[in-house]
């Protein structure tokens, strides 16, 4: 798509640094909790196992997030040809049937917001996806969620801003309420 004869540049969405740093902090808390439990005297078996598991899980999560901070890549890229999501893959605009904001209540005080994409042919997406992505997408569909869910918390922008940018690149994109 061009604007006045000039090609439109891509729009990039990066996870916020604050979110990545807070996830690293949470990983450190898990490691410290695990070390504290394991080093305590007379710990029952179940908490001891939990403490032992906290250390490597916290370490892996922390290293993963440090890696994401060091090698910063966009979470989502929008272009005139389509979109590319870090986890879900690449989609041409012709593959996307609609988009919407989906709000999931995670607790009495918390919600998660997603940009959900509906695809014209989900089976074609499943066929080209990795086994892990295919299983997650199929499970999402069975639970009543969209095939492709882009968590707002990882986009570094509001879901409304992302939908507006999508509509900029694909003016005919159907946005569901």
Can you give keywords for this protein?
four-stranded mixed beta sheet, single chain, 6 helices, 177 residues, alpha+beta
Structural overview:
The chain is of the alpha+beta class and 177 residues long. It has six helices and ten strands, in the order βββααβββββααβααβ. The protein has helices spanning 17-39, 45-70, 122-128, 131-142, 152-155, 159-169; strands spanning 2-3, 6-7, 11-13, 76-78, 82-85, 89-92, 96-105, 111-119, 148-151, 174-176. The strands form three sheets. The protein has a four-stranded antiparallel β-sheet with strand order 3-4-5-6, with helices on one face. A four-stranded mixed β-sheet has the order 9-8-7-10. α1 (17-39) runs antiparallel to α2. The longest helix is centred in the first third of the chain and has 26 residues, at 45-70. It is elongated. The model has no long low-confidence stretch (mean pLDDT 89).
In short:
The protein is α+β, with helices and mostly antiparallel strands. The protein is built from six helices and ten strands.
What is the helix fraction of residues, given as a range?
40-55%
Major pleated sheet = 4 strands, antiparallel
Integer average pLDDT? 89
* Principal-axis shape: elongated
Determine the number of helices (DSSP H or I, runs of at least 4 residues). 6
Low-pLDDT runs of 5+ residues are none
Radius of gyration: 20 Å
Helices and strands, in order, run as: EEEHHEEEEEHHEHHE
Strand adjacency order, main sheet: 3-4-5-6
* Main structural class: alpha+beta
Distance between the termini: 26 Å
The total beta strand count reads 10
Strand percent estimate: 15-25%
